[in-house]
Amino acid sequence: MNTEVIRVNRIKKLRLEKEWSQLELFKRSGVSQSHIHYLESGNKQPTITILRKLADALGVTVAELLDEEEQTA
């Protein structure tokens, strides 16, 4: 599976599990709402800095955001 797709799907999945809007994730991560939208729609690729901010806000590690096994399990 493509790691870009994993990142996009995993970010959105974790956000929705917390019942957060993109605005709430922005408030907690500092990553702009429009950037989150572009990431989740696959129009942008996250940098490691963005991944760290999102992981911290979502309460997971960067490795967990990239964990392909959890996506396919």
Automatic annotation (TrEMBL):
InterPro entries: Cro/C1-type_HTH, Lambda_DNA-bd_dom_sf, TransReg_Diox_bact_type. It holds the Pfam family HTH_3. It comes from the Bacteria. Keywords: DNA-binding. Residues 11-65 form the HTH cro/C1-type domain. This is Helix-turn-helix domain-containing protein. It comes from Aneurinibacillus thermoaerophilus.
